[in-house]
Design the sequence.
């Protein structure tokens, strides 16, 4: 089977039960993507597929051939970290760092959702074109990414700082 | 406690302070340079890029994957066990049960020896006996995780069930008083507290209940292990590398030096990442199969084999005199434990040190239940003990029509109320004052239900946070000072998110007078000098004491090396100080020589020194604790009972703060776990079967982004003159007092006292 990960192509021989998460971690060595529950409850395994965030533990690898998969290793460039990664360091948006790759991938996907006008449970007008990039929107939309170290404040600050300008409506 | 220990303790208490470590305050404790700076984490870039390698991410040639099968009964024996189908399944390399598992000694129980790390001391997969619901009964190794998990599903087990004690109520009826509670007396009585209570002008006498909790670090417990002859390598996720290595050596009958444990990154510990059955079983299977093994527990697996915080029932009774001082303070109760366990949930500890009272009674009991052994979880005891005690204080204040902060001011003790020893550093009243000002406590109306916005009732509450200062004996540090003027500091310690390497690099740079960039701190590997465990908020002080010891040795060695041609010639260690990358005379800054120059003249590539930290006698001489004042504002929906925490502030008194950025995160992390304890967290234990019913992150509710407001954290920053750097560990104090601050705020909002955690909306309807 053939997969496109971080713009490179990879071959793997796979059990059809293998999740996208296990493909990444156990078969291809992309261990930046984390496993915290393997059942869709923690968000540690979040990756981007064609720009949208998904829980890779709930995805069967076989279904993702030919899709553009981005993992934490593909965020930023070899020489330079993504602005959000730098902001996470600056605002201490983590302690142990285990939920962090998932938080970062999730936030990138989330910012794009806001840009596209996808409403959330706290969006006042469901049909609004410009969604307010408020802390409440960030917190609501990031609630699928658990952080047991409790770095939530720092994460919200980092996300806000990184995308505020871009998303100023 | 042994008589020898008692005698030693008394001797230390009588000894002049200056004889002890910390007798002369650490000169760095007031220095404002690198210490205290909000430096970003040294390992930050690795973590945000997914490059930090955790235990389950080490790849080894020929690696096989493990999967476990867990018992479904609490007590009895395995009657039949069919493994043939699993053995024949594709990819399977081994099926291990008690029938073929290698003979292993039970892991020595924690505290039975300095490095013992066993949680229960029970034998592991050595017989057909079942001792708790969830005990591993079989392990499968296969080429892939999918194959191993599938093969496990093919194993058939039947049990001969024996009667089990799985009801806390039943066990409580036969509760017993243990010999001691973590080395402290199980009960203390000063005066006749029950009589004083009866005669008191104001009194409360209340029962509080707290449930089981699980740590739920997001990283699942994992180990990647390999044998090479009798040499064992364990890539582990652990808070105790040395304890793990020593204990594994006892279990497998090899020498401690033959076991190497590496654990550079731990994805959250909170007390839960110690030595469990899973590492031992993986190592046994590796020995049996001759293959390197990776074990990564499922989330359910973590609940089955790694214990957590246990359930408690506590009585707090307070009797006050008309002047607002305490006549009686009583804190007693029971914690659910299995027979063999070292984690008694020391909820009575705060009441031993917090408040002055004429008569005091504290007593703790344990039970004999058939359940998984409890493991320490963030502020074991203190977290749930402060919930009961600090709610009761709030209730007493109300009965006396006194502001709860004013009540606490009136019962502030001058010396430790139960041991009689002086406090090393205690500024709780100050922490309350700063916190109250900053939080706007004066805006609180003491009458419940007096503030409302639409459907939302708004209330404020506060509570005291407290956690002991601990420094563990036995750690050693090494410094390698290189000819280019760099220092590598090494000690087998741990990083689970506390910022260990960052803070100790700041410390060592300041201590050695080097630039921060020229110092690195290496840890997480038993091939380094032996460290102490990361637990009891002790690691920072333990490492700091070892670094102080080795830097003293280094100074001596440097002076020797400098010899007669140096401007430092003839100077004694106490006449010099480290500065600008070298040593100089304390009073004549001109008499200076750099490390580079000293080493160069001596034709040395490096100077390596090692030293052990002195015994932590300061803990015996003084009553050493951290303190805090927690402030909470809640909004409770009058229609649905939904509770939202709208504001939270923690004001701490924890000695000198070493890194403002990482400290803020640690305090906030503790507070957030405290919000979970207050409002949503509960491990559901089926009292009929002894089975945990919600072993998943979907059914056990940890706080998520939406539950957490912007939290404010402030501190006194007053150094403790008796601790290294004037600092205290701060990993646990954040969670203490939070349950009570929330409960007291809920009362102020709604007029309802909830005396059983968690405070869920059904309890308010
Ligand atoms: S590992 Fe995928 S959501 Fe937890
Ligand atoms: S940083 Fe540890 S779980 Fe988020």
Sequence:
């Amino acid at each position: 089977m053939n997969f496109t990960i971080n713009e490179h192509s990879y071959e793997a021989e796979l059990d059809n039960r293998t999740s996208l998460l296990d493909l990444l971690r156990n078969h291809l060595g992309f261990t930046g993507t984390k496993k915290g529950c393997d059942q869709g409850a923690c968000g540690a395994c979040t990756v981007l597929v064609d720009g949208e965030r998904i829980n890779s533990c709930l995805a069967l690898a076989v279904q993702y051939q030919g899709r553009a998969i981005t993992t934490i290793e593909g965020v930023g460039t070899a020489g330079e970290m993504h602005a959000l990664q730098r902001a996470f360091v600056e605002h201490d948006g983590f302690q142990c760092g285990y939920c962090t790759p998932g938080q970062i991938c999730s936030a990138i996907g989330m910012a794009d959702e806001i840009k596209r006008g996808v409403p959330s449970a706290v969006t006042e007008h469901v049909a609004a074109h410009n969604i307010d990039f408020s802390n409440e929107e960030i917190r609501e939309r990031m609630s699928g990414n658990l952080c047991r170290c409790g770095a939530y404040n720092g994460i919200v600050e980092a996300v806000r700082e990184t995308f505020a300008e871009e998303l100023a409506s | 406690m042994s008589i020898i220990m008692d005698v030693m303790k008394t001797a230390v208490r009588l000894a002049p302070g200056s004889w002890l470590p910390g007798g002369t305050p650490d000169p760095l404790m007031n220095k404002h340079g690198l210490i205290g700076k909000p430096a970003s984490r040294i390992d930050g870039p690795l973590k945000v890029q997914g490059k930090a390698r955790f235990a389950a991410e080490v790849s080894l040639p020929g690696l096989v994957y493990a999967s476990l099968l867990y018992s479904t009964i609490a007590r009895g024996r395995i009657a039949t066990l069919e493994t043939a189908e699993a053995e024949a399944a594709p990819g399977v390399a081994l099926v291990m049960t008690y029938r073929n598992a290698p003979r292993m000694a039970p892991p020595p129980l924690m505290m039975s020896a300095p490095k013992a790390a066993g949680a229960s001391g029970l034998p592991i997969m050595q017989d057909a006996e079942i001792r708790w619901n969830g005990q591993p009964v079989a392990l499968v190794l296969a080429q892939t995780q999918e194959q191993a998990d599938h093969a496990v599903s093919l194993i058939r087990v039947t049990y001969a069930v024996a009667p089990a004690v799985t009801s806390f109520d039943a066990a409580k009826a036969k509760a017993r008083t243990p010999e001691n509670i973590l080395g402290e007396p199980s009960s203390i009585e000063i005066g006749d507290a029950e009589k004083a209570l009866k005669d008191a002008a104001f009194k409360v006498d209340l029962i509080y209940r707290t449930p089981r909790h699980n740590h739920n670090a997001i990283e699942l417990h994992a180990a990647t292990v390999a044998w090479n002859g009798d040499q064992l390598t364990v890539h582990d996720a652990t808070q105790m590398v040395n304890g793990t290595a020593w204990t594994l050596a006892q279990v497998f009958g090899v020498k401690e030096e033959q076991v190497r444990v590496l654990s550079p990154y731990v994805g959250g510990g909170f007390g839960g990442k110690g030595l469990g059955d899973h590492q031992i079983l993986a190592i046994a299977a590796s020995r049996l199969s001759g293959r390197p093994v990776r074990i990564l527990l499922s989330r359910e697996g973590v609940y089955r084999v790694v214990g957590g915080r246990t359930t408690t029932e506590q009585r707090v009774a307070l009797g006050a005199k008309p002047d607002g001082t305490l006549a009686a303070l009583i804190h007693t109760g029971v914690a659910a434990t299995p027979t063999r366990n070292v984690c008694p949930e020391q909820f009575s500890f705060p009441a031993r040190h917090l408040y002055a009272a004429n008569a005091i009674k504290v007593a703790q009991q344990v039970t004999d239940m058939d359940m998984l052994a409890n493991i320490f979880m963030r502020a074991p005891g203190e977290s749930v003990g402060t919930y009961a005690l600090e709610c009761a204080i709030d209730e007493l204040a109300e009965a006396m029509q006194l502001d709860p902060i004013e009540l606490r001011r009136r019962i502030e003790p001058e010396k430790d109320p139960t041991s009689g020893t002086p406090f090393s550093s205690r500024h709780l009243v100050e922490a309350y004052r700063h916190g109250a000002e900053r939080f706007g406590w004066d805006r609180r109306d003491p009458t419940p239900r007096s503030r409302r916005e639409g459907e939302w009732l708004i209330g404020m509450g506060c509570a005291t946070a407290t956690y002991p200062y601990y420094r563990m004996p036995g750690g050693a540090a090494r410094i390698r000072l290189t000819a280019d003027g760099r220092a590598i500091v090494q000690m087998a310690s741990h990083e689970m998110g506390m910022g260990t390497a960052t803070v100790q690099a700041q410390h060592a740079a300041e201590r050695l007078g080097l630039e921060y960039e020229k110092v690195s701190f290496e840890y997480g590997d038993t091939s380094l000098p032996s460290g102490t465990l990361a637990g009891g908020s002790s690691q920072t002080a333990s490492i700091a004491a070892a670094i102080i010891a080795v830097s003293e040795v280094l100074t001596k060695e440097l002076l020797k090396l400098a010899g007669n041609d140096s401007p430092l010639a003839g100077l004694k260690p106490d006449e010099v100080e480290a500065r600008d990358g070298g040593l100089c005379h304390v009073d004549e800054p001109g008499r200076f020589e750099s490390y580079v120059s000293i080493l160069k003249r001596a034709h040395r590539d490096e100077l390596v020194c090692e030293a052990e930290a002195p015994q932590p006698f300061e803990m015996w001489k003084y009553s050493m604790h951290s303190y805090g004042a927690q402030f909470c504002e809640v909004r409770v929906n009058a229609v649905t009972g939904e509770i939202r925490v709208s504001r939270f502030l923690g004001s701490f008194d924890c000695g000198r703060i070493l890194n403002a950025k990482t400290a803020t995160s640690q305090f906030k992390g503790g507070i957030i776990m405290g919000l979970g304890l207050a409002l949503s967290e509960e491990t559901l234990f089926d009292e009929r079967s002894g089975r945990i019913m919600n072993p998943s992150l979907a059914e056990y509710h940890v706080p998520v982004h939406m539950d957490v407001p912007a939290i404010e954290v402030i501190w006194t920053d007053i150094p403790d003159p008796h601790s290294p750097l004037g600092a205290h560990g701060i990993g646990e104090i954040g969670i203490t007092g939070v349950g009570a601050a929330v409960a007291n705020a809920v009362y102020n909002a709604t007029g309802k006292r909830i005396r059983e955690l968690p405070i869920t909306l059904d309890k308010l309807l």
In short: The first helix of chain B runs from residue 3 to 14. Residues A 94-100, 147-149, 151; B 218, 268, 497 surround FE2/S2 (inorganic) cluster (ligand 2) (CB under 6 Å).
